[in-house]
Amino acid sequence: MLRSSVVTGHFYHTVIAFELRALLQRDSQQPAGGKNVLTEWKRRKAAERVKPGNGRPLKPFRWWQQLNRALFHLPLVDADGRQVVYSVDVRHWQQFTTEDGKGKAHLYADGRHIAESKLPAAFPVNDGTAEGGIIEVKESAFGLKRCHFIAADGSERQLTPDPASAEGRRARLDRERPGLSRGISVFSVLLLFGPLALLALQLAESITRIPPVAERFGTFTSPVDLPLWLNVTLGVVAAAASTERALRLRYSTILDGS
User: Fold this and answer.
1) How distant, in Å, are the alpha carbons of 150, 208, 212, 215, 221 from that of 218?
2) What's the burial of 245, exposed, middle or buried (CB within 10 Å: 0-12/13-18/19+)?
3) What is the pLDDT along the chain (258 residues), one digit of tens a residue?
4) Is the pTM of this model over 0.70?
5) How far apart are CA 255 and CA 122, in angstroms?
6) How far apart are the first and last CA of the chain?
7) Are residues 184 and 113 in contact, defined by beta-carbon separation less than 8 angstroms?
8) Which of 165, 194, 176 is nearest to 88 (CA)?
């Protein structure tokens, strides 16, 4: 009986992997369309980076992985009426150990590894429609900035974070203590504006020291000259604020950097 269950499960996940390869092949051959050609082109290039998985089981989220792992889930119903729970697993530390600075995202179906891709990733998935949808994953230096399912009609929704993850705990705080959650969100943005203003002053001072600029516009001296320890402290505070925003998948190029 146990052997029969294992064989059935292996066959089921083989079918899922086969469907994924079919979606990948279809997406690579489909002509670009839609309102944003550049976005479609980026998603297609991301889909080309997807590689098949090896069927290994999804490891449970551990308490010590709060800041170095993200785990999100998405239940979908396929064309046969069968519910499949897709899971996206990202280990943040990988982006700091690769030459190109890009981490990896791993896709699981009902707890079995079916695909992986360098980030940014775009995983085609079966959502019961003829066109299918994609799960789009993007990472910043502080965590994920995007983990969304995009349907063929253009509608999208964020995947649900695992309850044990830092993102899941932050989402629970938002549900149970919305007032406190909003306060933390506002405070995070305010903490980022201080270092951003100081950076703008330092940048203006550096630019006006360039001889051609100085001759035409004169020089500018920043009115704020902070000691090294305070600059380091502000940098740590800004990193903490950006990390908090990443737990909510909030991202701004200006506030949070690249």
Assistant:
1) 51, 7, 9, 6, 10
2) buried
3) 333 333 334 434 444 554 555 455 555 444 444 446 656 776 677 778 899 999 999 999 999 999 899 999 999 998 788 899 999 999 998 887 777 778 899 999 999 999 999 999 999 998 888 778 999 999 988 889 999 999 988 899 999 999 999 999 999 999 999 999 999 999 999 888 888 888 788 788 888 888 887 877 788 777 777 788 887 888 888 889 989 999 998 887 777 665
4) yes
5) 25
6) 52
7) no
8) 165
Please give the backbone phi and psi of residue 46, each rounded to the nearest 5 degrees, phi first: -65, -40
| DSSP type of residue 65 | G
Name residue, tokens 């889930």.
73
Closest CA to 94 of 79, 104, 82: 104
Task: Pull the structure tokens for residue 223.
Answer: 């009115």
Sheet holding 133-140, edge to edge: 121-125, 133-140, 143-150, 156-158
